[in-house]
Each structure stands twice: as C-alpha cells, then as structure tokens.
C-alpha cells in the first residue's frame, strides 16, 4: 500500500519506513536503538531543535554499540510480516521514539495524536500521527497482506530455490 500523489488513505513511504524502524527496534536484542536512546547518546554538539521539537541524535556513529541481533534478513522479513499481521494495531500507539508499541492514549488527551485506525507517532514531531489518513479498510488490507506474506515466508517456496523456474524467495512476495 504505497502513497498516491496528493495523499489519500494509503500508507506513505515515511509511514512504511517508520514501521520497519519500529519493527527492528522491537526485536530482542534490538537491531536498531530507540530514538530516545539516540537522544541520550547525543553530545552537546549534536543538540538540535526544529520547530520546538528535540531532534537530537549523535552524528558520530562510533558512539553507537553494534547490534547483538544475529537474525538473518530472511528471518527478519518473515517476522516483520508476522509482527504486523498479529498486532492489535487499533489499540496501540506505535512509537519509534520509545522503540515499541504502547497502549493507545484515550481520545482527546491534551497534546495527543489525531486518532485513526493506525496510530504511528512521528519520532520527532510527537503530536503528529503519520498514519492519520489510513482508513479501517486500508488497515485491514495491510494486516491481511502481512498475514499472507508471513505464510509465504514460512513456506518452502520462500526458503528453497525453485528448480522448475517458478518464483521463489522474495519474488514470491511480489507476485499477485
């Protein structure tokens, strides 16, 4: 579900990117640190405010510890689809700032995010739900596609190369 010119109810590239970031943050051990952790590592020279929002993070990657996660890319891809295919997305606040899914705050919370079927917090502009335009129908389709993709990733066609010229691996996910 990509973005159409002029917006619309589909997931934007930015929202999809944040879903990938959040997923990689939520692994055990994490593949990526939370943005809150990155802010804590930022030195005085790394401090940045944009529109009143704290956008600080270390510019020197040497201060970051390498991830201890040893999962393969194929395993992570399968888990991504399984993760978003099974979460109760309607009841959660997806927060790349915290690096995890949190209970959604009640509607009307002061300074809160615009409620929608999918609440994905911008990690820099904390009052912005980057998925506020997503409709229940689009969210349902996204979850269904994730479940279908997770099932394909667990099958032998994903892990074993086809000998008969049939699509296999990632190509199986790209077939209609």
Automatic annotation (TrEMBL):
Organism in which the protein naturally occurs: Vireo altiloquus (Black-whiskered vireo)
GO annotation, cellular component aspect: nuclear speck
Keyword terms of this UniProt record: Magnesium, Metal-binding, Signal, Transferase
Gene Ontology biological process terms from the UniProt entry: RNA 3'-end processing
Protein name, UniProt field: STPAP polymerase
Signal peptide positions (record): 1-33
Gene3D superfamilies (UniProt xref): 1.10.1410.10
Domain PAP-associated: start-end pairs: 74-128
GO molecular function, one term: poly(A) RNA polymerase activity
Superkingdom assignment: Eukaryota
Pfam short name (any one): PAP_assoc
């Amino acid at each position: 579900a990509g973005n159409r010119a002029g917006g619309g109810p589909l997931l934007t590239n930015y929202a999809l990117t944040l879903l990938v970031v959040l997923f990689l943050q939520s692994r055990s051990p994490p593949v990526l640190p939370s943005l809150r952790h990155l802010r804590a590592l930022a030195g005085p020279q790394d401090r940045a405010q944009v529109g009143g929002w704290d956008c600080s993070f270390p510019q020197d990657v040497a201060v970051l510890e390498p991830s201890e996660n040893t999962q393969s890319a194929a395993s992570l891809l399968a888990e991504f689809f399984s993760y978003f295919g099974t979460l109760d997305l309607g009841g959660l606040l997806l927060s790349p700032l915290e690096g995890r899914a949190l209970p959604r705050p009640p509607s009307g919370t002061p300074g809160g995010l615009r409620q929608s079927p999918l609440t994905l917090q911008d990690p820099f502009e904390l009052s912005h739900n980057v998925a506020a335009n997503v409709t229940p129908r689009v969210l349902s389709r996204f979850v269904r596609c994730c479940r279908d993709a997770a099932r394909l990733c667990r099958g032998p066609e994903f892990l074993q190369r086809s000998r008969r010229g049939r699509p296999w691996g990632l190509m199986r996910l790209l077939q209609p």
